[in-house]
Amino acid sequence: MNKKVMIVGVGGQGTLLASRILGNTVINEGFDVKVSEVHGMSQRGGSVVTYVKYGDKVFSPIIGKGEADIILAFEMLEAYRALPYLKKGGKIIVNTQEIDPMPVITGAMEYPNDIEKTLFEKADVTFVNALELAQNAGNFKAVNVVLIGVMAKSTDIPYEKWLETIKNTVPPKFLEVNLKAFELGYNF
């Protein structure tokens, strides 16, 4: 049986490192893995979506509407946008951070204020103040690894395997902060 994980966020939040940690961990567990990255204007704070599918045999990384087992959302509005991709009975993990998209910044739109309520009504949702946990770990940029930690807790993959992957994926100068971030997310 294949697992389908959608990682959504805004450029600069570390969604690509998160997908690399997830992908490398499941490869090390012996799964076939396919990853596809879809970038918006990621350099300018636009939407970034990564699909990660893993299982015994995976033929395509693309996840269609109603197919994602898990949506890992780095930002509230991105969680809302990704909601149609969540399968019935799927889980969504959402960082409570709100990052204004360009139309909100320019005043052309307002940031929706009913996102939390909508997500609660439509999904099994876990809200995480990942920014605060990342700051507690020592660097606000570790939001991505906090969220991977929260997600990892709901998998069958042992804690030590995740740590091993983080040690082999994260540059040494950021390793201590990221290990702490993972631990805080895992124990959330």
Enumerate the strands of the largest sheet in spatial order, edge to edge or round the barrel. Answer: 2-3-1-4-5-6
Helix/strand class: alpha/beta
What are the low-pLDDT stretches, counting only 5+ consecutive residues below 50? Answer: none
Q: Please, what is the oligomeric state?
A: single chain
For the record, the count of structural domains works out to 1
How many DSSP-defined strands?
A: 6
Taking the alpha carbons of the first and last residues, their distance comes to 28 Å
CATH architecture: 3-Layer(aba) Sandwich
Tell me about the largest β-sheet: 6 strands, mixed
What global shape is seen?
A: globular
How much helicity do the residues have? 40-55%
| Overall mean confidence score, pLDDT | 92
Order of helices and strands: EHEEEHEHHEHHHH
CATH topology: Pyruvate-ferredoxin Oxidoreductase, domain 3
CATH class: Alpha Beta
Give Rg in angstroms.
Answer: 16 Å
Strand residue content: 15-25%
Helical segment count: 8
